[in-house]
Amino acid sequence: MVNITTQYMGMTLRSPLVASASPLSEKLDNIKRIEDAGAGAVVMFSLFEEQIRRERETLFHHLVYGTDSFAEALTYFPEPEQYHAGPDQYLDLIRKAKEAVDIPVIASLNGTSIGGWTKFAHKMQEAGADALELNVYYIPTDMNVTSAQVEQTYLDILYAVKQTVSIPVAMKISPYFSNMAHMAKLLDDGGANALVLFNRFYQPDIDLETLDVRPNVLLSTPQAARLPMTWIGILFKKIKADLAATSGVHTSEDALKMLLVGANVTMMTAALLKNGIDHIRVVEAGLRRWMEEHEYESVDQMRGSVSQVHAEDPSAFERAQYMRALTMYRPNWSAE
Amino acid sequence: MTEREFITLDANEAVARVAYKLAEVIAIYPITPSSAMGEWADEWASQQQPNLWGTVPQVVEMQSEGGAAGAIHGALQTGSLATTFTASQGLLLMIPNMYKIAGELTATVFHIAARSLAAQALSIYGDHSDVMAARSTGWAMLSSASVQEAHDFALIAQAATLESRVPFVHFFDGFRTSHEVLKIEPLVDSDLLAMIDYDKVLAHRSRALSPDHPVLRGTAHNPDTYFQARETVNPFYEVCPDIVQNAMDQFAKIVGRQYQLFEYHGAPDAERVVILMGSGCEAAHETVDYLIGQGEKVGVLKVRLFRPLDMRRLVAALPASVKTIAVLDRTKEPGSPGEPLYLDVITALHEEWTEVPMPRVVGGRYGLSSKDFTPAMIKAVFDNLSLAKPKNHFTVGINDDVSHTSLDYDPAFSVEPDSVVRAVFYGLGADGTVGANKNSIKIIGENTPNYAQGYFVYDSKKSGSMTVSHLRFGPQPIRSNYLVTKANFVACHQPGFLERYDMLSDAVPGGVFLLNSPIPAELLWDRLPRPVQAQLIEKKLKFYTIDAYRVARESGMTGRINTVMQVCFFAISGVLPREEAIAEIKHSIEKTYGKKGEEIVQMNLNAVDQTVSNLFEVPIPAAVTSTVEFLEPVSEGATEFVHDVLGMMIARKGDLLPVSAMPNDGTYPTGTAQYEKRNLAQEIPVWDANVCIQCGKCAMVCPHAVIRIKTFAPEYADGAPETFKTTEARDTEWAGLKYSIQVAPEDCTGCSLCVDVCPAKNKSAANLKAINMRPQPPIREQEKANWDYFLTIPEMDRRNIKNSSIRQQQIQQPLFEFSGACSGCGETPYIKLLTQLFGDRMVVANATGCSSIYGGNLPTTPWSKNNEGRGPAWSNSLFEDNAEFGLGMRVSLDKQAEMARELLMGLTAEVGETLVEALLHADQKDESGIHDQRERVVLLKEKLANVNSDEAKRLLPLADMLVKKDVWIIGGDGWAYDIGFGGLDHVLSTGRNVNIMVMDTEVYSNTGGQMSKATPRAAVAKFAAGGKPAGKKDLGLMAISYGNVYVARIAMGAKDEQTLRALLEAEAYDGPSLVIAYSHCIAHGIDMGKAMRNQKAAVDSGQWLMYRYNPERASHGENPMTLDSRPPKMPVKDYLRMENRFKMLELSKPEVAKVLFEKAQQDVNEHWALYEYLAARPVVGTNGQSEH
Fold first, then answer.
1. Which of A201, B20, B24, B172 pairs as cysteine with B80 (C-beta 3.0–4.6 A)?
2. Collapsing DSSP states into helix, strand and coil, what is residue B456?
3. Cβ-Cβ contacts under 8 Å, B32 against chain A
4. What ipTM was predicted for this assembly?
5. Are residues A228 and A279 in the same domain?
């Protein structure tokens, strides 16, 4: 029997397969099913900074809009005794999830600025979250903002949150930095307990009939796994923080590759949305089978065994390999 | 005695607090100005707050005040402690039950925010007309003069009614007291417990109807016994005054405040005394003190218990020295020998005065409809009493140049002490001024030894309305319950007011003027109008300015300058030490906004911190330099009446209009809103002719009719201003014609609904449409000129417009324009469309509510007329009788048309057979037919003028009745679903050709969003603070059940073509028609600029089904039901979450929301199945009914 437990941010997980932040975790029932399917941990769906702000501002706006204007209708709504704004419901779900499952529950906060919302990190901890995943979804579009400023924003958010919580904090980031390795080091030095690589940029689409720019979420494909795999392989053993692979993990093969390059955990969203929560069982079975077939005893044993520091050819992660890849490439049609 | 803390609140809340504590059953119905009492009760009950005895009262909303009174009657009869709150017409509806309740000697208290009655006009403001109309019901009547008294008397009345078994009306002045925020000492539970003798509660219960000890009550008598039985109650009335006085004495022992049934205040040797009741007592008290200080022998007798009138005590309370008495009534009884209190005082003196001679008594009227009642007027009353022959039956406070009843008074006379800080703030409803001032009162009233008072004046517009806050602070209790006219501090929160209103006329010399203005302090002086500069210099005012919108914006608070201006007030008024005040403001921000979110708190705190450094004093030069005068209140071209009368009201000088200026029967000209240029919009829509596809949707949805379309011959574009835009008309039937869309720049409210619905996109920039919002000020003058030019282009002949296609129909002239409705209103687009289609032949019966206010509240009206002088004739009867009112119109018009036809037939020889036949058998189904008939009537009148017979003379004024007349009965869901449903149902059953349009906002919009039976399940509304558990009533289905009623359910934002078709069919149907129109509303908590999307979502989710049920179709063997909605394509939850009214439930009661949202989906599913069946079922017979 192979041992698939893994360490992630100081927690021992029974499996390296983790359900990443997705709408699946909006329901307590699903969280239970995720545990039942064998996941090592569950990352809750993201609580968005904008959601926190907007919900409150919208509520406030509509409660005061049109008031004190007309003598017969000085208000339009009864004043609720209490509000359970989005965050309250989120916190409530953490509490319920903690009661319902034994696997670690990782709360997820998504935002790009320092503000009141970061204080929710503390409330999440109070509600029982075992760890926190900070998804800094920041698309700098201001031409006057420098790369250094962008990087500092990430660090500031990390610092702000670390100040308010004692539970581990993972940073879920994008790969789009001038020097990803340096950024990883900065976050590592800044106290991030793990790096979750990578979040996926929302890239809007255009509706050709209405000419509206539409949100159109594309689920990740196995091809997307290459980017996190590359960077996890490069970063393994070079930073203290744990590494979580996300994007493109669909099969046991994908998960294995991530573990081999050095991931502590591999996270799945698209595969579960597509195949259902029980897909975790399929992946775990494949993982175990491969490990048994290849006589691995534990995840710990194989973790990072094909990372840059341990790979037979370290240059495979770098430019030298890029050149080789290009020169060796033969398009399908040329073979005919 | 209990240690007490002071609080600041208004009388509605002060009364509701006590009434709630003492009730087990509360029946409510909204009516201004009493609605807030019911709202408080509902809110507390939904929060499970217990009454005095630890149980949560049952609060039930009824369908009318009549219903509320009936429910209370029942609750009392079965032994509960029950109460209700009402005013004005509401009290009138309760009168029948009040007779019963009193006749049965039942203990209860009704709390009344006394208000005017609708006579020549409706008024929401305060006087005693309503309570005086109820004085014969046999109820005791206890009058409170202040917020503190209202709070205290709510308890005293309850104690007294339980003891006496006489039911009590406890009344206080609407608005002046109900809405005045005042620092008071609240009662605590132990006071209430000590005052209420529980044995009396048990006695009340023991009289209850119960099958366990059955009795019969409510019998019918015969001539032999009714009279005697009626006299049995006398002993109860005889002892009632003693009981009330005892309660007052006991109250004094417990609480420390002593009241008397008749409370005299003044010189012990007074020779002149005024007698009155209500809030006027406070101003009279203050004036008497002042005049005594001046050596005058005067006094005031405050009447607290008006019924049963204890004549002995009344007379005994008067000083023996009194020689002349003025009795002041805040009501009017035309034709009576005097108003009620006056007559009572005379009777009392006649019966009880033992000395000789008896004082001379005169009576007068004052303060109707909250007309300010000031020390100056009270002094005039005393001066009148000094005359050898005092004027009797006088009025005070107006200039009656018709009957010459009015007393002259000196408006400059003031009694206010220097120790009182008086401040006036001019703001917009939307900018938060009122809220900030209420907060300042709280800060001062509850954190310092000072007393504080606030009163707020609103205008009658629902968009861009001006608010004026009147605040007083001082070391002594404040009795000055009239508007501030000697202000130490005047603040103008809106720079636009500066050129419109003379705000500084109320400033005292040496006072402070604070102006919010984007103009830098150093440039400001030169931009001030001349009269403002002159007063700043003459009165030696200190002048401060701040760019509050910038400070607020930079703090994250777009549009709301409340916090900024509040800090300014405290920073420069010196009411509190600056640092202390700022600390209090911050504390209060955290308290007020804490539960709404940290971001909200933070942005307010930021604003506080940014304010002081942005507040500047403006040095005042020695000389006036400006030549700019105040703007004219009405635009050019206004008629004399509009200019001289309505213009005065617009300029806020309506108080100066004499009686002779007013129409004596409540009749006003239409078409007057066009002269009131309000310039509300920061941004207005601008048309891009090149992008436009000429669909007409922008004009159709425009709630204020500011977007107009004309199609015209090219020569009419000659001589147009350079910037006037035209393009080729695209409609093939209009080939060769020009097309223009023009915006009325000064009438637009800037809602942007037009932009949101515009389907055309600019091919080079997808963010632009064929109509785009642009800042108004830079283009105001240019567009004004374009608008004026546009108006000179002739309207297209209505016969040439295909009114079944929106793109053509929308060039019809709207005869409803520039109303005072909310920006983005969901009702007015329907009304406007009606007037385009049928305005030249419609009579409108309009139920009381939003539409009667934006349609008929002075100064101006949006109902207008076309170039031939034809247009809608409009009237409002009541809230509850609108359908019947409209039916009466229909029957009357039909009768007159019938008489005209009868007379015409008798005049065949004189008129000529051909014309008579043509007139009698004219087909008037379309515009052409109506046009031709009008031509025939012209011819007929010409002929009749030459016929010298009685028949001809009788026919002449009836001739116009030969032309088709439409009756449109319109109103909201509060009327149609609730208070007026019985009448509506009956009118539908008559088969008469009336058209009924229900603008369904799903709440009582006008009174602030109370639940109606149209409110959908899960919506949070007032009176449904915990979310409405029941589903919406299907009014349409009820009407369909008659089989011969045309019924349509429409939603313009979902399918405008269906809306148009339904209205055309409804009008064409020769029988009753009912159109139920989904009307989005500010009370839904939505973005009003995008509200047509909400309508669409309501339809797409199946929440709002659209259909047309046309009995005509049945006569052709077709199914009368056409389902115009498609199967629901989105979950109803997604629609509900678009609107705060539903979303609030998720935020406040997530568990309840979950259940109700699911039920809402079930509702949708079931309705869809039902209507799908109705539309598909096989039909037999001709009445639209199926064989099933």
1. B24
2. strand
3. 71-72
4. 0.91
5. yes
